[in-house]
Design a protein that fits this description.
There is one protein chain. This protein is mostly beta strands. The protein has two helices and 16 strands. Strands 5-4-7-9 form a four-stranded antiparallel sheet. It has a four-stranded antiparallel sheet with strand order 13-12-15-16, with no helix packed on it.
Amino acid sequence: MINYAESINITTLSVNDITDVSANASFTCNKDGEVYYAVLNANATIPTANEIRTGVAGAVTSDHKTVEKDVSATAAINGLTASTAYTLYAVLVDDQSNASEVTSKNFTTLATGINVTDRDVIKIYPNPVTTWLQISMNKADGKGNFSLYSISGSKLSEGRIENGNALLNMEEYPSGIYILRITDGAFVQEYKVIKK
């Protein structure tokens, strides 16, 4: 039986180092205890704290991690599928079985490796970028779509590639790493973009 207490919280939950098949989850909590977590497909039903602790049916992966108050702890998440949207659910349980509210974080895994022909078709520059990112597509119809994502998987911007070119204004975004997804119906390709 889990008791619920408002004074116990996961203060920070993030998903970092996302690849096509893995990621790292980071937790910071306001009490010592165990963080129980489960990764589900993004469209799955939101689990309860007790389900996360005892095992969520249909979870891609689940586990628990011992945490200390105000000290960041990291857990490896493996066995993911490329280009898939997931949600990480977590709950903190202290030594008296008090549980935090369920905390969640959405993220999307990267596509599998870029093949050489796609590198010749798409050009992204300058990278690193400070203001405008140029997207060039060297193919017959010169049409496609692009979407910009934060490293945690949140969609920030989207647009169309017409006549083989598109410009993306990166000026408003803070310095960091972003994922640019290019699609044209025949392929989906992702590129790491660095904003200075």
